[in-house]
Write a structure and sequence with these properties.
mainly alpha; globular
Length: 266
Amino acid sequence: MEWEWEWLVEFLKGMIKPAAATAVVLLAALLSYYQKLKLEGEMVYAIVRAFIQLSVIGFVLQFIFNQNSSWWIILPYLFMVSVAGYTAGQRAKHVPHGKYIAGASILVGTTLTMLLLVLLNVFPFTPRYIIPVAGMMVGNAMTVTGVTMKRLRDDIRTQMNLVETALALGATPRQATIQQVKRSLVIALSPVIDNTKTVGLISLPGAMTGLIMGGASPVEAIQLQMVVMNMLIGASTMSSIMSTYFCWPNFFTNAYQLETKVFSME
């Protein structure tokens, strides 16, 4: 009986420091109250939700890491992609089938990146490596894909006359919107590229910091972080480009005309 509760005792002991760290959140909530920002309730809700979610996922990952079947890699990965697709689709809410487009784009971009890393023997195909790495890629691709889709739709809407003129002169949908596509991709990918340029100069990334605090040597942490930055750029670029290809059929009719109802909403 004592052994059955041992894991709970150890877990609660480990939560002492995270609980103490909530002091800074309470300070932020107090400042929000005095400034009448009315954000204190949302702050408390967010941190409580984060505690619960991370605690649950910690136990789930501990279980998954002890499994040998590949399905325990694939299923969590598909779950992450599904949530990311839904979230990115919410950002681009005026894009028809936006959630499916975002999910498919993220799936293609992150799968190709992960497959290449596994084939090059950068990471072994085990849950302990693939799930955390996939989580970083999917999260980054989610943000970039959502921005790309929203920006592409908004730019086409703003420049509908230019696009329609190009179509009337015989341009294909791709030719007519190539400038809008380029602009949306540049805007979405610029933060990822800028973050890569300044990594280590302004702040230490999470993966690198975690390894160092966990006892790994700074050199080993840097080597892993180099891999992480490479894969984030690769997955984000592929996912965002795929989203533009998947968006086109929803922006144009079969007669190569703009689908006006898509661009009539603010």
